[in-house]
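Please describe the entry underneath.
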Amino acid sequence: FKAAPTINRYLGFDKLPLQKLYLFRNVIAGRQAFWQSYDATYLFMLLPDKDTLYPEFLPAWIKNKYSWFDQLNGILINTEINYLDANKILENKKNTKTPFFNKVFDIVHWNGNALDVMYKIISKKYENNPDYYQIDGVNIAYTIQHREMSAGLFGKEIVPWIELNKEALRVKKNKYKGFNLYPWFSCDIIINEKLKRGTLLFATDSYFKRTHQDTLKGAKGAIFPFVHNVHKLINVHYTEKFSILKDIAQNERPNIVIEASAERAGYNITQTAFPRLLIAGDKLLNESQFILSPKLYTPSSKHLNCILELNGNKIEVFAKNNDPILHLPTQQTNKDGRFVVMAKIHSPVNTVAQLFYAQGNEQFHGTRSVSQKIKKGVNYLHLPIYARSNEKIRLRFDPGMKKEKYTIFSMPDTKEMFEEKL
């Protein structure tokens, strides 16, 4: 394991803050909502680092063991996210005869034993979906071989390896040229000529994509055995540009989407965050939120420095000066003190939207506010706040900082929102 970062995390010196944990959860929920809007079945997996699965390898003087896995797993369980805890599965199958990590060769990635276990567990989840996942493929997909691998100065080691059955498989050229950090991260599409149905998109990192398994001529990285359960397997990295994922959704129409990230790099998936994705995630999770909508307009709606007019399915806000103010209904934060306000808004100029909040006897103040830059045109706003938990909260929304006309629209459904060109 990587000694210093790992030990720091296990000592509790490098905990992820609450805001980052919610961002992580929101991004995954948003990705699930996106794929479900295209009728795909979605699954997310968090993969444990070696030290999480084998804490006995850590120095004996570390008494209270912490890990990012505890935090990231904790924010995902008991939510609307379709989530698989890989650590729990591997812990239940851990024994000395089939170690899931090697001693000298590539010790930071799990080996063929772990890949074998996870493949069979995941396949079992889809055994009742014969229209797009052929469970019979499990028996012919690969064999476990024990190969001698060189670990440089550390010597050689016999390691379990996934030897893929390459019969009837071919690489299909594709136009999805987004990710170029490493060549093996780029999109691969593999066709199984023996099967006629089923398309699976597998978004992962090196745990499933690079180590302890075979490549296929013409492919950019290792090919996981899922290819023997479906007609078409699409491999991408989970931080692939969302525009590429959108093209794949529209053109390839995957039936199943499985995403997996390793514990130590799991937070990297938040690099794909943008307001519409976060809004979709919060709508799916449906917790402590308020969506600005024309349906909420009444003649007595509280506002200051502006005139409100209901015009069909939108509210027009005519600012009288540079500080138009809308007072929103009183809300309540969740158990962590979080609350989020979301909106679809049009601005005729580049400006900034700001959300103020106050609890108890507090007054609205800039130190208790969040903001989001908005550009000329249509914008989606996602404004999360963190305050005292399980307590009433007063909200003030300033749609812009210019004397202009701002328009608040109804929030569209998830698919319409993602397909809108801004």
